[in-house]
User: What shape does this take?
Amino acid sequence: MNKKQFKNFIKNLPKDTNVMGRERYFNSAVLIPLVKIKGEYYLLFQKRAANISQGGDICFPGGGYEQDDKSFKDTALRETKEELGIKKKNIKILGQLDTYVAPIGAVIEPFVGLIKKKALDKMVIDKDEVEKTILIPMKFFKEHQPEEYTLRYEVHPYTITEGGEKEVHFPVEKLGLPKTYQKPWGHRKHKVWVYKYENEVVWGITAVIINDLLKKY
Assistant: This one.
C-alpha cells in the first residue's frame, strides 16, 4: 500500500458506524405505538393472521425495508399504514431505540410513536396480515416480570435429508479446518422472555424490544 492508497483507505473509513454485513440480513423496522387513554399510556400490538409466516404471534406493526422507503422510519410508518390503516399524520415519532440484530438473521430498527386516540376508532385492519389489535397498559410490563427461558443455537455444517443422504453446507474437511467444526458447534444459549397478558402471550423479538423500552421508563 503506497501513500496515495493509504490516504484513500483512510478517506473511505466510515464516519458513522452501522451494522457490519447489513446487506446479508433481512432489514426491517417496527413502530412501537403508544396511545394515551384517560391519562394512562398503552402499547398497541397486533396479532398476526394465522395463515401467514409466524401466524398467531403478537408483535408491533412493521416489516421489511423497501427500495422506495427513504429511511427505516418511513418503513415503520408505511407498514403501520398498510397493516392497521393508521396514517402518518396521526403518528408522532418520539424517538428510536437501538438497532437489534436478531439471531434469526434480521436487523430491526424500532421507532417509538405516539398515536392519536381518535386514530384507533378509524383503524382499518388488513385481515390478510392482522387478526386483531391488542392494547396493553405500559405499567403492566413494568409491574410484571416476564418468565425467562433459554433456547440453544447451533451451527450445522451439514444436515441429513429425508432420504438419509448427507447434504454438506460447509465443506470443513475439504477446507482442512479443525475436526471440531465437522460436527455442530456453537451451542450458544439465547434468553427468551415471555409475558402473559390475559389470554395472550408476548414473546420473541417483541419481548426483547419491550425490555429495552422499559429501561427508558
Remarks:
- The first strand starts at residue 26 and ends at 37.
- Helices lie at 3-11, 72-84, 117-121, 138-143, 172-175, 204-214.
- Residues 22-214 form a domain with the Nucleoside Triphosphate Pyrophosphohydrolase fold (CATH 3.90.79.10).
